[in-house]
Design brief:
7-stranded mixed β-sheet; 7 strands; alpha+beta
């Protein structure tokens, strides 16, 4: 998610920009699960144009807050619309953070007086794209480190920019502060098409999100019909992922993914008693055997077989990490990949089958109904 955090610039204080940066960066890094990377932009939101067109300025202010495409927003609209036409809004933008973390930062900032709220941004919105382009692209947060952008590795140039490192260090938020080479990116030497290029990227992003959403919807619906415990297991996996902070907690995500694959193997290719390679504990082998029998396309079969091998290796690795002293940022990425890869594999297997899997119900539910019918005299045990 690309998200902007807004502040009343007149209420920030004398050390302009520093309090919002300390609070916003600190709110992001204080989340133990944070291990991501995002570029950072900041500065005044220059809504007012130099022609003094009040009507146009007000329209731009409202367009910045547009939620027509489903963007998330927590901005205090009335206060923002009063300040924005006077260029009275200071803004910090994170280019790419998880939605849950973006919302958590917003929650932690809400008691800060000058804070006006947060807004998800789309580059397909021309006003948002143009106003973000006017912000300062300062650097990148990567884990607990901050990298200040510099155009060249020339020692003289770096010495001239040393004050930028000092400014970031003075915030007292990051463990490491250093330069990152941009090779002319974000300068007048960067001849990328604007606004066409960022808009293309925005449309591609939205299309990819739609494709992924469609896949998730189909998997959740059809496997929920075929495997009654599937929704509960996936809820346990996603809930564990959202709450996890330690490697042991992230390992619970792998456990849930493994339960899904075990149940899928039982559904598609039940265990063969007496066969050590296709027994109850050999879920991977049974899934591979189902794939072998389900398709005559050797290339397609080989791809899905590699997927099965890879996800079982990933699940095993994540479980192994749980027994070592590792940081949460190592296993969070692994847990996220396990969840995504599980969904992709389920969708690919559904594609191999070529039709919805047979629907089933919980045996416990059937037993309860039968017992109630017998108790009420509507049927006999022999029936």
């Amino acid at each position: 998610m690309k998200v902007a955090y807004h502040f009343d610039s007149s209420a920030i204080g004398s050390s302009y920009g520093d309090p919002p940066k300390v609070l916003t960066y600190g709110a992001l890094l204080s989340q133990r699960a944070w291990a991501g990377s995002t570029k950072v932009l900041y500065g005044d939101l220059l809504v007012a144009n130099d022609r003094g067109d009040v009507k146009r300025t007000r329209l731009a202010s409202r367009e910045w807050l547009s939620t027509e495409d489903g963007q998330w927003s927590s901005v205090r609209t009335r206060r923002f619309l009063r300040l924005a036409p006077q260029n009275g809004v200071y803004c910090i933008v994170f280019e790419s953070v998880e939605a849950t973390m973006a919302r958590s930062v917003n929650h932690r900032l809400r008691d800060y007086g000058p804070y006006l709220g947060a807004q998800e941004l789309f580059d397909s919105n021309n006003v948002q794209l143009a106003l973000v382009e006017c912000l300062i692209v300062e650097g990148r947060i990567d884990g607990n480190s901050y990298y200040v952008f510099v155009m060249t590795k020339d020692p003289i140039a770096e010495d001239a920019e040393e004050w930028k490192l000092d400014d970031v260090r003075s915030l007292g938020v990051f463990k490491e502060v250093a330069f990152e080479l941009t090779s002319g990116r974000f300068t007048i030497f960067d001849d990328r098409e604007w606004p066409e290029l960022p808009q293309r990227a925005a449309y591609a992003r939205r299309s990819l999100l739609d494709l992924h959403s469609t896949m998730v919807e189909r998997v959740m619906a059809e496997y929920g019909d075929a495997m009654p415990a599937f929704p509960d297991i996936m809820f346990a996996a996603t809930d564990a992922f959202e709450r996890a902070e330690t490697s042991e907690q992230f390992a619970h995500v792998a456990t849930s993914c493994r339960r899904v694959l075990d149940q899928l193997a039982d559904q598609l290719y039940p265990a063969r008693e007496g066969d050590p390679l296709l027994g109850p504990l050999q879920s991977k082998n049974r899934l591979r055997e189902f794939v072998r029998l389900a398709t005559v396309d050797s290339k397609n079969r080989a791809v899905v077989e590699r997927e099965i091998d890879d996800i079982f290796k990933r699940l095993s690795a994540l479980g192994a990490l749980n027994s070592r002293l590792v940081h949460a940022d190592v296993t969070r990425d692994g847990a996220r990949r396990c969840l995504i890869q599980t969904i992709v594999l389920l969708d690919d297997i559904r594609g191999l089958v070529g039709r919805p899997l047979p629907m089933t119900i919980r045996r416990e539910g059937l037993t309860k109904v039968v017992k109630r019918l017998v108790r009420d005299g509507n049927t006999s045990p022999s029936d």
